[in-house]
Amino acid sequence: MRQVITYRVVQALPKQLLPLQEIAYNLWWCWNPNAIVLLRRLHPELWESSFYNPIQMLSQMSQEHIESILKDDAFLAEMERVYEQYQDYLSRKTWFEKNVNVSNKILIGYFSAEFGLTECLRLYSGGLGVLSGDLLKAASDLGLPMVGVGLLYQQGYFFQYLNADGWQQESYPKNDFYNLPIKPVLDEKNSPVTISVDIGGHSVVAQIWKIIVGRIPLYLLDTNIEANQPDDRLITARLYGGDEEMRIRQEVLLGIGGVRALRALGIYPNVTHMNEGHSAFLALERIFNLMEEHKLPFAVAREVVTATNVFTTHTPVPAGNDIFNPDLIERYLSPYRKLLGLSREELLGFGRQDPFNHSEFFCMTVLAIKMAAYYNGVSQLHGQVSRKMWQPIWPEVSLNEIPIDAITNGVHPRTWISREMVGLFDRYLSPKWESDPADPKIWNRVTDIPDAELWRTHERRRERLVAFARRKLKAQLLGRGAPKSEISRADEVLDPEVLTIGFARRFATYKRALLLFRDPERLFKILTSKERPVQILIAGKAHPRDNAGKDIIKQIVNIARRPEFRRNVVFLENYNMNIGRYMVQGVDIWLNNPRRPNEASGTSGMKVCFNGGLNLSILDGWWDEAYQPGNGWAIGRGEEYEDYEYQDEVESQALYKILEEEVVPLFYDRGPDQLPRGWIKIMKNSMQQHCPRFNIHRMVTDYGHKFYLKANQKWNELTANDYQASHELSRWRTAIQHAWTNLKIIDIKTDISREFLVGQNIPVTATVQLGVLRPEDISVEIYYGDMNSNGSIKAGQVVQMQPTGTVKNGICSYYGEIPCEVSGHFGLAVRILPYNPNLAQKLIPGLILWG
Is 549 helix (H, G, I), strand (E, B) or coil? Predict the structure, then answer.
C-alpha cells in the first residue's frame, strides 16, 4: 500500500475579511441573529448548500467573489459592527464575575456523549444533545468557568429518509472535520495532541479536537487515526451505533479518555458533571490521578472525587440506562481496577444497586450515583420518578428522602427565538431580556406588546414554516423518485392561515405519535372543516434498531398520503435542529402526548413558548409543573394507567374533545379587526409564566448554586493542607463502618397514650448504645409525619435530637420534641445517621439505623 502524506489547504482570506474567519470558528455566531444574517449575506447560495456551515462556505468561495465582497462597503461596515458585538460579548463582565465570590478558582468539566450546537455539527441525536449544547451556550453567556468534553463522531447520528412504502431508512454521511467550525489541538511542534487509553487489553490512541462555544472550549476525542487498529478507529464512528461492546468502549474513551485529554492540555477541573451515565468511568480516572500524584489510598481519593462529582439522569425507565454483563466489565475495566487496588467484586459493587448481589449486572447510572454527591432529575416529576427508580440504592430510606434532587431543564432563548420575535422583544421588553431571561419582571412587560403586532409577528413565522415545509416535502419526494404529479402537489399542502399543530420528537413507542390518529374519521372532520380547518406537521426519527418506532412512522406517512389527509398532514424527513427551529417558531400548538410518567422533561415545548406558540400536552415532564388553566391545555389530570389500550382510548378522546371544543374555536374566534383576542391572551400568559422559568440560564444558575459551588467548596476543604481533611474523613468512615453493627437504639420513650393539641410539642427520648463511637460521630433524628393507609409515614420531616448527658458504658440518652402543626393521624420513628462535617451527602447506603 502506498504511503500517503496528508496536508491541509485553507482559504487565504485578505486581511480585511479575517474577522469573518474568527467569527466563523466561534459558535457564538449560531445564537446571534446579526452574525447569521451577515454570514448568509456573504453568499446565500453557499450558505444554504453548505447546510449553514460558515467554514465550508468560506472555503468554497471563489477569488472573484471575495474581490466583490471587498468592494462592498455596506457589507464591510456590517461585518465591523458584528465583529464589535462579538468582541464586546467576549470582553464584558459576566454574571458569574458580578455575582459569585469564589476565593479559590473553580473549573467545571462537563461530560456528555452528545452535543447539539448547530445544524452543521452532527454530534447529537436528540434532546439530550441539544440540552448539552444549550447548556454550554448559557455557561458562556453567564461566564461560568466550564469546559466541555465529548466524542467526535466520524458519521454522527444517521440521516433519515423514507422508502416508497414509508419505512425509515438510514444513511451515514461522514463529517468532514476540516471543513467544519472545529480545529485539531496542536502542540508546540504543530503536531496533533493525542492521548492513549487501554481499551480491551491494548492501547487506543485518540486525537483531541476543539470547538469554541462563545467563552467555553469543548474538547472532543477522535480514534479514527492511523495509529489505531481498524476496529479501534470505529469507536468514534457513530453516535449510539454498534452493540453493547462498542458502547462500553465508547464510554471508557469518554470517561477515562476525557479526563486524560483535559490533563494533556493542562486543564484540571475540580468539579465534574456527568450528563447521563455514559461518562461515569471518569470517576475512576480522577481517583487514580489523585492516588498516583498525591500518594493517596483509594478510599481517601474517592472521598475527594465523590464530593466533587455531579450527576444528571435523563432516563425515567430502567431499560434506558446502560447495563453491562460483569464479564464485559472485567474484560474492559480490569486494568483500571488493578491500578486502583480493587477486587473484581469491589468494582462491580460500585455499579450494582445491591453490591452483594453477584448476579446483578453493572449499571452506569448506579456507578454515577455512587461516585457523586449531587444528583438530579430534569423536572420535578422526573425527580420523583428517579427517586422511586433508584430507591434500592438506599433501602433504609423512605422515598421522599432519597437524595436525588430535581433541576428542571430549560432552553437557550437566543438559539430558538425567531428573528422577528427578537425584534419584538427588543422593542417592548427590557434590554436585559437577553442577558437575564430568568427575571420575571422583564417578561411581565409582554403585556405591553400590542396584540396586533404580536399576532402579525407570529403569523409571519407560520407563513415561513409553511413555505419551508413545502420546499422540504418537494425535495424528499424528488429524492424518493415520486411521480411528477405528486411532487407538484407539494406546493398545495398546508395553508399559511390555518391553525397548525406541530409534533416532532424521537419516535419511541411511549411517545404515542399515533394517539392523534386513533380515530381517523373524527380527526378528518377536525382537519377538513371548511370554516375552521386544522393542519398537522410531523417530524422525528426512530432508533435504527427500533422497528416498532419505524412502524409508527410508516403508519403516519401512509395516513398522510391518503387523499383526504394529503393537504393537512405532512411528515418531514430527517428531523434535525434546522427543522426543529422552523417548527417551534411557526406552529400554533405544540402537541406532546407521552405515556406518563415516561417523559423526563421535554424541552421542545419550552422553545415554542418563547415564540408565542402554545402547548397541548399530557401532564408529564416539564408540563406537569408548568401547566395552569389559561397558559395552554392539559390532556387529563395526571392519571397513570395499567391498561394501556384503555388509556389510549380515554386520552385520545380527551385530545379530540379539547381540539373541538376549546382550541379550534378559540383560534378562529375573531373580532372585526380579525385578531383572536382570546388566543393572544393565552399566548401572553404562556410567555409571562414560562419564559422566565424554563430557560437554560435559570437552569445553569440552579446547578451553580445547588451543586457546583458546594462541590468546589468541598474540593477546597478536602484538598487543603495536603488532603488532611480527606485522610481524616476516610479514617472516620472506616471506623464508622466497622463500629456500625454494634450501634443500637435501646429504647424510645414518648407519651403517645393521649391526644395532643395543635400547637403542642411531643417530647421524645431515645437511649442509644454507641459502642466505641462518640456522640459527635452520629446524628440521632426523629423522623415524623402523617400516616398513609399501609401504616407508613407519607412524607416525613426530621427533628435533630440532642445528647442529654455524658456517655456511660458506651450508652447515651438523646432528647427532642416534634411540633403538632396540624390535626390528623401521625407517626414517628427514631434513626441514626453517621455525621461528619466534611460529608457532602449524609445518607450513606448501609449506614442508616432505625429504632
Answer: helix
CATH of domain 433-694: 3.40.50.2000
**If we measure between CA atoms, which residue out of 708, 832, 820 comes closest to residue 768?**
832
Query: What are the backbone angles phi and psi of residue 569, rounded to the nearest 5°?
Result: -130, 120
Q: Which fold would CATH assign to domain 107-116+137-158+179-406? A: Rossmann fold (3.40.50)
Contact 119, 681 (CB under 8 A): no
User: What CA–CA distance (Å, rounded) separates 243 from 819?
Assistant: 56
Burial of 376 (C-beta count, 10 Å sphere; 0-12/13-18/19+)? buried
pLDDT in tens, 657-674: 999 999 999 999 999 999
Proportion of the chain above pLDDT 70, given as a percent: 99
Spatial CB neighbours of 697, under 8 Å, sequence gap ≥ 6: 138, 141, 142, 410, 413, 436, 437, 438
CB 56 within 8 A of CB 25: no
* Pair 608, 631: CB distance under 8 Å: no
Residues of the chain with CATH 3.40.50.2000: 107-116+137-158+179-406, 433-694
Angle between helices 63-70 and 73-91 (to 10 degrees): 80
**Measured between alpha carbons, how far is 535 from 466 in angstroms, rounded to an integer?**
10
CB atoms inside a 10 Å sphere around CB 603: 26
Amino acid at 681: K
Tens of pLDDT, residues 807-826: 999 999 999 999 998 888 89
* Cα distance between residue 440 and residue 699, in whole Å: 14
d(CA 348, CA 362): 6
Domain span(s) for CATH 2.60.40 in the chain: 743-850
Alpha helices (runs of H) in 226-343, residue ranges in sequence order: 230-233, 244-252, 258-264, 282-294, 298-307, 326-340
- Strand ranges, E, within 152-215: 159-162, 168-171, 183-184, 194-198, 203-213
Query: Measured between alpha carbons, how far is 499 from 679 in angstroms, rounded to an integer?
Result: 11
Task: Give dist(CA 371, CA 286) in Å, integer.
Answer: 11
Choose which CATH entry (2.120.10, 2.60.40, 3.30.70, 1.10.10) describes domain 743-850.
Answer: 2.60.40
Tell me, what amino acid is at 753?
Answer: S
d(CA 699, CA 73): 42
3 state SS for 554-572: HHHHHHHHCCCCCCCEEEE
Closest of 452, 515, 490 to residue 671, by C-alpha = 452
Compute the Cα dihedral for 110, 111, 112, 118 and give only its sign.
Answer: positive
d(CA 41, CA 522): 47
For residues 827 and 771, the answer to whether their CB atoms sit within 8 Å is no
Task: Tell which residue, 579, 581, 575, 591, has the closest CA to residue 542.
Answer: 575
How many C-beta atoms lie closer than 10 Å to residue 203's C-beta?
11
Which helix or strand (DSSP H or E) is residue 375 part of?
A: strand 374-377
- Contact of 790 with 734, CB cutoff 8 Å: no
Does pTM surpass 0.85?
A: yes
- Report CA torsion sign: 585, 586, 588, 589: negative
Q: Are 30 and 416 in contact (CB under 8 A)?
A: no
- Condensed to tens digits (0 to 9), the pLDDT of residues 475-525 reads 999 988 888 888 888 999 999 999 999 999 999 999 999 999 999 999 999
Q: Which residue has the cell 406552529?
A: 587
How far is it, in rounded angstroms, from Cα 687 to Cα 693?
Answer: 10
**How far apart are alpha carbons 407 and 321 in whole angstroms?**
19
Catalogue the long-range contacts made by 295-299 (C-beta closer than 8 Å, 24 or more residues apart). 296/723, 296/726, 296/727, 297/341, 297/730, 298/340, 298/341, 298/342, 299/730, 299/733, 299/734
Q: What are the cell numbers at 345? A: 467484586
